[in-house]
Design a protein that fits this description.
This protein is α/β, with parallel strands linked by helices. 41% of the residues lie in helices and 16% in strands. The protein contains 16 helices and 10 strands. Homodimer.
């Protein structure tokens, strides 16, 4: 990866589900070779360890969604943590399949996708942290078209829902006790032009994508976030294999330390993180500074941080949020418990060993 000549960041002085066949094949491969990972460094030493090369599977293209990872690499935090290099592999791709196969050390996904693979395939995976404390799903409408600001506003409306989001939509209606017959659902793809043209009243969307498009187009977006309306669950989660948690624990913790530092810098200066994204990591993607900056700001102020992260540190998932996430999974027909889905022990050790990282704000 070509780096910008001068990083806008300074080091701190104190410091989309569908995994099916790929997951099943990867799971078979993993279960047939359950020995320790030969490429990992020895763990357990208090000295600066050398972990060699590592890799992280991103769930999407290299846009501001992963601004913390970009900052961690650009500012040298991965190198500082003991890595010769960390390959940030762009998606769209299944984080779970990559981790199960052993092709990547860490995957970025969400509680729905990882929970599904664990519950249905028996995948030996755990979520060990979450960047987004709130998932970014929303029912997007426009002030002049639909104007869906509350659950009551959904009655009689026409909503565009993608096939991949149908189960989540069904769960949304179920937990809010909304009669499906009171709403007309139109199967759609991902381009929200039908909403922008007034062909539908609402759109199953992301706060960090289509809602920003509407805002930048001057269309006065109105959001009904799922996280605030019955379906809270963590997203941008870090998924690791149970084998790595047991046998490459120090390597995973080192990755988390670097990630925490990168995301702390990014949320403290989202404009600089957006610029790094547009100018360096996503320079060939046609990204715009305006949209990436808005996404960076939304993440920094509403999705990544919370009272829990302020008290306990970035990526931590409180017991309450774990239970809420599992309840959302159950509403979507996925039966799993918190102990099967989450393992917060690595982050607990990271913050015990590096208490200065808890205070991530300026």
């Amino acid at each position: 990866m070509t780096q910008a000549p001068v990083s806008p960041f300074t080091r701190r002085s104190a410091k989309r589900v569908g995994t099916g066949v790929a997951v099943a094949a990867a799971l078979t491969l993993l279960l047939s070779s359950c020995a320790g990972d030969a490429g990992s460094a020895e763990s357990g030493s208090g000295d600066a360890a050398s972990f060699g090369e590592a890799s992280i599977q991103l769930s999407w293209i290299k846009n501001a969604e992963f601004m913390g990872e970009f900052v961690a690499e650009d500012a040298g935090y991965f190198a500082e943590a003991g890595f010769d290099s960390v390959d940030l592999i762009p998606g769209p791709a299944s984080a779970e399949a990559g981790v199960i196969s052993g092709n990547v050390d860490l995957g970025v996904g969400n509680a729905i996708s990882t929970g599904t693979v664990i519950a249905e395939e028996g995948a030996p995976l755990k979520i060990i942290g979450a960047t987004y404390q709130k998932n970014p799903f929303t029912i997007l409408s426009l002030a002049g078209v639909g104007n869906i600001a509350t659950l009551d506003d959904l009655a009689g409306k026409t909503i565009g829902v993608q096939a991949s989001n149908q189960s989540l939509w069904d769960a949304f209606l179920k937990v809010n006790e909304i009669d499906p017959s009171t709403i007309t659902v139109v199967p759609v793809e991902y381009d929200p032009t039908p909403l922008f043209n007034g062909e539908v009243d609402g759109w199953f969307a992301y706060l960090t994508n289509e809602s920003i498009d509407a805002e930048l187009a001057g269309l006065d977006p109105v959001n009904l976030p799922l996280a605030d309306n019955g379906l809270p669950f963590v997203a941008e989660t870090f998924t690791a294999s149970e084998d790595a948690i047991a046998n490459d624990r120090e390597m995973l913790k080192a990755l988390l330390v670097a990630e925490i530092k990168g995301w702390a810098d990014a949320i403290n200066d989202p404009a600089a993180a957006a610029k790094l994204t547009v100018d360096t990591y996503g320079k060939d993607l046609g990204l715009t500074m305006e949209k990436e900056t808005r996404q960076a700001e939304i993440q920094a102020t509403d999705l990544v941080v919370s009272p829990d992260t302020e008290a306990n540190g970035l990526f931590t998932i409180s017991d309450a949020l774990q239970k809420e996430s599992v309840a959302t999974l159950k509403a979507a027909g996925i039966d799993i418990d918190t102990a099967t889905l989450f393992d917060m022990s690595l982050l607990a050790e990271v913050y015990e060993e590096n208490p200065d990282l808890i205070a991530y704000s300026k």
